[in-house]
Amino acid sequence: MTVNTNAVTQTLMLIMQCLNATVPVLPPRGRFWALVGLSAVQGATGVLAHFANPDGTPAEAPYIKK
User: pTM, whole model, 2 decimals?
Assistant: First the structure.
């Protein structure tokens, strides 16, 4: 996962979390499950980014800045 993909995904999820908390589109139970789903996506994205260099190569490979 490249650093740009991670940044865009995390930013979109953050915006959606804020909208979920402030705009009453879903009922309370739906808002809870939306929170859980969005948090799961953010967590998975963070884990994938943790094990990758900024250019998307595996973290085990040395990162050479271009």
Answer: 0.84
